[in-house]
Structure formats: C-alpha cells, structure tokens
Write a structure and sequence with these properties.
The chain is mainly beta and about 500 residues long. It is built from six helices and 21 strands. The strands form two sheets. It has an 18-stranded antiparallel beta barrel. It starts with a helix and ends with a strand.
Amino acid sequence: MKLVKISLAAALACAAAVSVSADDAQPKRTLKGNMNVEYKALPKSVDSLNEAFTEGMFYGRLRANAFRWDWKEDANNDDNKAFGLGGGLIYKSAPLHGLSGTAGLYYANSPISNWRQENADVNDVKSGKDTFSRYNVKTSGDWQMVVLAEAYLQYNLSKTDIKFGRQMFESALTASNDTKMIPNTFEGVSIESKDIPKTVLKAAYFTAQKLRDHTTFHDVLTYKDSSGDSWNNNDDSGVHQGITYANLQAAGKDVDNELIIAAISNQSIPNLKIDVTYTAVPDMVSSVIGELNYAIPVGDVTITPGVRYMSQMDDGAGKIGGASLKGDVTAANAASKGYKDGDSLDSALWMARLAVATGAFKGHVGYSKVEDEADIVAPWRGFPTGGYTRAMAQVNWKANAESMMAEVQYDFGKAKILDGFSALARYAIQDSDEAKQASGGQADLTTIHVDLKQQITSQLDAKFRLGVVSADDRVSGGDKDSYNEYRFEVNYLF
C-alpha cells in the first residue's frame, strides 16, 4: 500500500510538471468560489470503443492546506494544527453512444511532523481534520489517505444525465464540499435533467457516503460502528450522535440506510427562481426545503430578496436518538436539557436575506431561526443555513438558535484594480438557547470571517482564510467557544 501511495504522489507531480509547459490560456478546469472544480473542456463523442478510451481526458489537481486553531481561554480545549499535501487525478472517457465513465483517485498526506498533532491527540484537531483520517491514524498510525472517491458510469440522452457509482451530488443538503483534500462523495444512482425549459430536475438514491476524512464508504446516517468506534461511520459535524449502530440494533432498525433526494429548480417566471428539495432517510428522518429568490434590476444594481423554509419530519429516528444532535436527550430528561419533546425530531428552520450585486461588488444580509423543537439533522455536507447565515466552521442549526449575518464580496480583478484578487468578509451573530448548553449547545457568539484569494494564473491560486469567534461564557462557567482560526490553501489545476 505504501508503494501505491508513493507512486500516486509521483504520478501527480510528474503530470503537473508536464502541464507547466502547456498553454496556460485555456485551462481544462477552473475553481469556483467554493473551491469546487468547474469543467471547461470535456471529451467529444466518438464512434468506437477504442476511441472511447484513447480520446478520453485526464484532469489533475495538486493542493496544499494548512490550518491553525487557537482556543482563547478554556483549559479543556487544546490548540491544534494540521497540514495536508496531495491532490487528485481524474480520467473521463469519451462518450460512446451517450455512455461514458469517470474515475477519480485522490491522495492526501501530512508529511510535516511538526505541523500536525501527535498521534494520540488527533481528536483535538478541528477544521484541519479533513487532511487525514483520524481512524487510520488511531488504528495504524497512517497519516496518508488514498481513495477512489469517484467511479461512475454516465449515460447522456439529450439534456438528461444518469450516473451510477461513486459520485459527487450537489443539492440543498448534500455537497462535495471540496475545500480540503478529498471531496465528500456518495455511492448510488442519480439523474439530472434539463429537458424541460428553464427547469432542472434532480433525483438520487444513495446507499453509502464517504466523508472528506474517510478512505472507505459508510452508512449515510449511522454514528459509530459495531465496535462503538465513532470515527468509522458517519462522524460529520452535523451527524446525530444518538443514532448509533447499537441504538439502531436495539430498536430493531436496519443499520444500512439509504438517502433519497428529489429536487426541482425553475425559472419560468422572469427574475424568479424557485427551488424545492425533498431529502429522506426512509423510516428515520426526512425534510422538505422550499426557496424563493426574486431578482429586481435597478439600473446597474440587482437587488434580490430571498426566503428559504425547511420542515424536518421525524419518521422514527427521534425515539431512537432523541431531539438533540448530541444524542443525550430523552423524553425523561428533555426539560432539564432545554427541549419540549425529547424523543421527536420534528422541527423547522426558516431564513430570509436581501442580496445586492453591482459590478465587482456582491453582498447580503441574512437571518435564520430554528424552531424551539428539535435540532436539524444534516450530516451530508450541505448546510441548511448556507448562503444566509452560516459563517466558516459554524453549525448554527441547534434548536431555538437565531442568527444574523452580513456578507460583502469584492472582485478587485473585475474592477481592474488588482488582477486576480478577490475578498470576502462576513460578520455573524448567533443567539443560542442557554437552556440547551447541557446538550451541546454553544454560548452566544459573534464570528468575523475573512477570505482573501489570489488567482496567480488561470491554473494556480492561493487563498487565506481567517475566522475570529468571540463567545460569552457558558452557563456552567468559562469560555468554551471562543477561538481564532487560520487557513491557507494553494491549488494547481492541470
């Protein structure tokens, strides 16, 4: 296995070296603002099986991510750091009668021993944990990850694509969230159709998920495995820690769950975008999210008011895991933990925002409120409050949480001030329910989040991120939630 890892790293380096001499004017892929890749060149259709492979295309990405997390006060929290170096190599075959295939092999390593935690301290690592696998470090001391995260067949008919296998899938609650080393992907089948004018239809049936810091695919909802290990199943920050392997078995439930998604996006009415998404883990929990955004042109300025509403429905998971994501709330102790109904996951979340865009400037002010019922379950890397009130590293969908955020973005390159440079700043206020601190709730806090990105060439970019969180003391005493976070990343696409 070590030889395979070294060979992959060498292959990536060699491919990048060859690419340096290539024409930089027409990159095959570019990075979006969320660091996901966007394909600019794809293989053309061919007429023979041999050509399907010989006319296919390779895509590469080299990347490095460095993290530093400094807690402000609490002695129970340990400052932590992480560094990841690696990338990915993706091959897409040319379509033959609409049929093609994609394989994506990803690699990550933490090679600098003094820029990572000791093996015994990997649990201390916060946002940098996605540069390695905590489970692999704990069980074998291995700080490297090699994973075939993408491997799917694709069939295209007109404007409809069907994918079968390991794949990324973007929806209201699912995302590749490719901001670290290896994206979040799913196993199953999906379909996306644009055959209806001004309408996008999506649907998916997934049987497994691979989180960014995992090298194997696992259940989409279950926390902990059969041995009780919390890092060998779904351990995402938004996972419900009460829906464990042991609890599911005790309740006579299947520990192999499926994730079902159906979504529609329509822009038939001028300036109005309508989105509706249904997400469900059958017999466990489901949700419906509706969103409206209406663009109002005013001269060179576009003003867009938007609203999003999420209704979460308990289909059996509440009695197994309780109303809190922490997993320690039951009908018997609900009142002492700050919940009205301890064994129900019925809940709701609503958001509103006002966005403004003109030239190189974009900005918005947003508000969100979680009903005082249950926490929102969303361990699939799509953030329920994303685009409204979510700042870096904050999970603000605890029951009875209320948030406000102001965001501004400015593209200095577009404004012809500084070529390739852009900046983003956010200021968020989170008003939490003090009564829920006993079940993992945070204290009231403010977040300042700054992103500075420099596009060095069309293939190479660098990004610095800063998060400053200032929180009140917990009801039980002490500042357990304040910290400063620093991130730096470099991406090279070839």
